[in-house]
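The freezer alarm interrupted the setup, so I double-checked each line after restarting. Inputs confirmed:
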Amino acid sequence: MTEAELIEHLGDLRDVQAPATLRRGALLRTGLADAYFPLDTPLGRLYVAHNERGLSAVLYAPSPEDFEAAFQAELGRAVAPRPASPRLVSTLREWLRGDRHHKLRFDLRGLGPFQQAVLFKALEIPYGQIRPYSWIAREIGRPQAVRAVGTALAHNPIPLFIPCHRVVRSDGHLGQYSLIGPEAKRQVLQAEGVPIERLRELAESGVRYFGSDTTRIFCFPTCRYNKTLTERHRVTFASEVQARAAGYRPCKVCRPAA
Amino acid sequence: MSQVNDVDVKDAFPGLVADYQDALYRFGLRLTANSHDAEEIAQEAFVRAYRWLAVHGLDSVELKPWLYRVALNAFRNRVRRPRPATTSLDDALELPDRDDLQPAQRAECTETRAELARLLARLPLRYREAVVLRHVEDLTYADMAAILRRPEGTIKSDVHRGLGLLRAALAPLREEVRV
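Predicted 3D structure, all chains:
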């Protein structure tokens, strides 16, 4: 073989493509891609993405590839599979059972200030309780923006852990749900012990609040203070105006009114 | 002191990886003839590159030769470090890469190609680095001088010597094939 031939053959060695895992690994190790892992829940297999700032996405997807594509499309950056630490998995499972003893952090960078305010407010709703969309709107100082609250919750990137499912329509209907669909919302709330059907019947008959005739305080029906409220002492109200007219003040825990 | 825009580097880096991943992977593959090592070398190079760029900025270096320099250091660290002998050199020679290639490219994978890749990765380091940078990566002697930190004249003679060793190693194999 002449030197010229050898050089030509060496040039043939140029034809190489890097495997897909290389770029993903590099971005993961530099913190420029999020890591993700599958998490099996009562709703099926979900995918959870996270980075050094906290959880960044929870999505339902038929396959890891679909999840990666959806993540890239929604968040505009790469995501790479990496097994979760046992500690993170156990914290996630605790949260799903309503135990928030271990803190979770959330990466809501890409969202606007309004949506962030809505989602952080939703985080305040305790396990097993529900609030109307208008409650979030009022609490974040935008009482007219009820519809926008619905939209912001529908685009919650971290459903289940940021409990947008605990926000429902004031007429007792569940409203929309970003994760899988409305049926999943019902399933999650039922698993948390929320008596959905009974609450809807109450809402349909015009009941929005429960009051106690001993404390003269009115609450949302799922407020923890109603747990010990007996039927004998319970009064119902259709509106804040009606409750106040009867001499009741709003509960300071569930804050049904300002 | 110049201001480094951290956001610029973060935004630009994924594109930079996309632009250079084939080159650095190939560089590692031709130096080691092992696809696993090649991936590790390229990944390590990108991680180190990112750490530098995040602090000093994208304009602090002449990107292409500098990335090769970083990858070369990653390779040298790897060969210097004794590692568990789980993979032999022949392990991942050409075959694993073929899966990544298009069918048309796969057809081009000749025996010569595999044989040459194996011999290349067995050249003494000094000649191997020079030949790969010059004739596989197609870099200029000026860039190579910056990467290898040796005078151009020395590098030219290393390339020449490397080619000579390769031809000598190929000759007996050719004979065998003919017999």
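Quick read of the result. Chain B touches chain A through 42 residues (CB under 8 Å).
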